[in-house]
Amino acid sequence: MNDDMLTASAVKADPEKWPFTPHVISLETSIIREILKISSKPGVISLAGGYPSPEMFPLEDLKQSAIDVIDEFQSASAQYSFSMGIPVLREAIAERETKLGAPTKTENILITSGSQQGIELCARAFIDPGEYIITEYPTYVGALQAFDFYQAQYAMVDMDQDGMLVDQVEDAIKKYKPKLIYTVSTFQNPTGITMSEERKRALVEIAVKYGIPIVDDNPYGELRFAGEHVATMKDVGGDAVISLGTFSKIIAPGLRVGWMNCSDKIIALFEKVKQCADLHANTFTQYMIYNYVRSGKLAAHIPEIIENYGAKRNLMLKEMDKHFPAGLSWTKPEGGLFLWIELPKSMSASELLPKAIEEKVTYVYGHPFFPDGKGDNTMRLNFSNASHEQISLAIERLGKVLKENMP
Prior knowledge:
alpha/beta; Aspartate Aminotransferase, domain 1; Aspartate Aminotransferase, domain 2; 8-stranded mixed β-sheet; 4-stranded antiparallel β-sheet
């Protein structure tokens, strides 16, 4: 055979015909990521993403932390590391978790590549195709994406101002025999609602009764700027709960460091699952965060974030009262990054989005947060990322769109 016939130019591959699995081909692109592409256009103000404010990233401290890490830990900071995470960071996280209300040992902590990986590891560990997960209704769209990859099905539990309606959970367990209960119980994404302590205790009681793990996704729990402290699901449930945390919202998301806090009796199972995924989280950023936490600067920084986001939330609520038409309702979250709007049933938030984009403002319409695809009369707004001036202008623009399209 002529050698020329073996060159890349002579071989005409057709990768689109490769045998991808049907469930991968059917995966949906994140609507939030697609909307964010639109938001990058000049003049468009985005209330769509779950972005922390870049002005709150402690860049100078992180720069110094990176230098300190190289000086102190040298080549170890750039080497392969433990799948469980570097021991000093695990110990530091355990100490922080204990101070925040959930007694924790170093042996309870597994470092993940952001809390999103914690969701994915739980899906890998528990879900076979067709098996059920109990979720809030609505729930975090990123979790639905992770669970969809493993072909999960959903038993959906309604919410009110105190969170998941726990009295629906036992019937759902009996009917669907779910493998786990997934909740964002504090400053929920997308609604901003916090589950009451009473309901958290009731949910733990039911979960223990039926031997089902609760996966509590808690990326926002330290960002309370109104109301009274409510114990977390992990505080209440102990070993009944797998808690997922992250430094994304309290330091910077690009570092991609989070953690899983669960019983030391099962954490070795998750270690093996993580080894299949990525061997270990980023060694260098783990050391950077450890250095930053150890210095005491994180403890001083969190109140600054709370002050910043609380002022932005208050401004957004004030502007909504001023510019939004009657016939809408919205949450008034006591922390986190989001609030949730319900339009009249006859309105479609997804159909309104192009009109909002014409007015140079974006949001996330609600139906991707519903496992059954309903909820098209809802939308999520983010108040953490935009400036005060942008929030005022964006709400005025969105109010104009809403008024012009009210039934």
